[in-house]
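Hi everyone, sorry if this is the wrong subforum. Our group has a chain we'd like a structural model of before ordering constructs, and none of us has done structure prediction before. Sequence below.
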Amino acid sequence: MDGLRLGFAITGSFCTVDRILSSLRQLVDAGAKITPILSYNAASTDTRFGTAAELRRTLEEITGNKPLETLVDVEPIGPSALLDVLVVAPCTGSTLGRLANGISDTPVALAVKSHLRRSMPVVLGIATNDALGASMRNIAFLKNSKYIYFVPLKQDDPIYKPNSLVADFSLLEKTITAALTGVQIQPMFL
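Answer:
Right subforum, don't worry. Here is the predicted structure as tokens:
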């Protein structure tokens, strides 16, 4: 990871943000240079898991960089070749839908579109309650798309949330390393 220019986009799924921040710290410790990116909701929503201001402050503390939060902020990612890899984690069902359907109306979706224009890897760390429902078609479509890689995922509560899947964020660094060589780590479903 030493010197790797890594974009790290955070979307909703606020209950997973603590795990994401832990992964970010590990990536920084491994030498990655991280540019944080926030979805509109992550940048503006206060929840029982924390405030948007706290998230912004923590990201800047961990990465040394102010989060990108607007379409104008993220548009140069591709044309200026700013990143080697772009991670979206947590990646919500809404973001999956945007990516699968070419909709780039949010900072995260446009960051992905801009990065993909250079045929560079995008790593998705899914966290959504409808992954085995309405979002499965988007997961399947993106699985068959060039330059898209998934952090292996599993059901987080098969009894009470049978359609929910969450990435195993402990495998994030391994997924990024594999994506840089064009490989999806297996098994994808744990």
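For your construct planning: The chain has one domain: 5-179. DSSP finds eight helices and seven strands in the chain.
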